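We modelled the chain as a single entity of 295 amino acids. Its sequence is:
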Amino acid sequence: MTARPADTTTRPAEEKAPRAGAKPRTRVRAVRLGPRSLAALALVSAVGVAAFGWPFLAPPASQLSAHAQDAPWLFAGLLVLLVAVVTATISESGLGPKAVAMLGVLAATGAALRPIGAGTAGIEPMFFLMVLSGRVLGPGFGFVLGSVTMFASALLTGGVGPWMPFQMLAMGWFTMGAGLLPGPDRLRGRAELLLLALYAFLAAFAYGTVMNLAGWPFMGTLASSIAFDPHADIAANLARFVAYCLATSLGWDLGRAAVTVALTLVLGHAVLRALRRATRRAAFEAPVAFDAPSP
């Protein structure tokens, strides 16, 4: 009788139970944010808050309110430049060739996923991929991935217009937020999926709300009861905006949130495992060395 060979197969590292006293595996970051990158992110986020929320920040008597129809166009042009500056700054802080390759693959995948449910009750499967990618690869990579993916999908679907810079910034925030969630090195399994599902649900509604802010001032007097009124006070315009969201996008945002949560719970474990395996094999933080040619 021959002896049965020992089982030499090994499970992925994230499925192994940690040994007593062993240190948890730290997350490998494709991009490490330095002081310049953080400053650039803070600047573009501050301008973005002003670009989205200026109807509530500007008093009725200000000159900005007098140019309500022009302000979104001005902010859109400024956001294009700022997002480009942030992307370039983050790239200089360590976006190496391996990270660029993964960025291209994930951005192309996300851009291809977006048209699947376009125009159908908010069915947008790209959002769940952005949540999981930001979780694994960190906030810096997440911001660049979200912005680039939205830009690529706009070119793919023909959705280029003054709203595109707002979409790029909002998706950058959406993906970066997933990278800022707690427990990136210790939290695994069902608890992590529930955390990501909760974030996906809330962030999907937040994305829809901020994008409503980008288009709301364009309505003019087409729907006077819910349109932005540059002569009204903040409380009145806030009530109008809430009514606008309930009347125009609540169903769409709910569909987006439900689809993102469902895909995160069903496919999240497999996609997280694949992304973590890819980041370990890519060894982003290891320097790339080239062998000298033989004489």
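As a brief sanity check on the tokenised model: The radius of gyration is 22 Å. DSSP finds ten helices and no strands in the chain.
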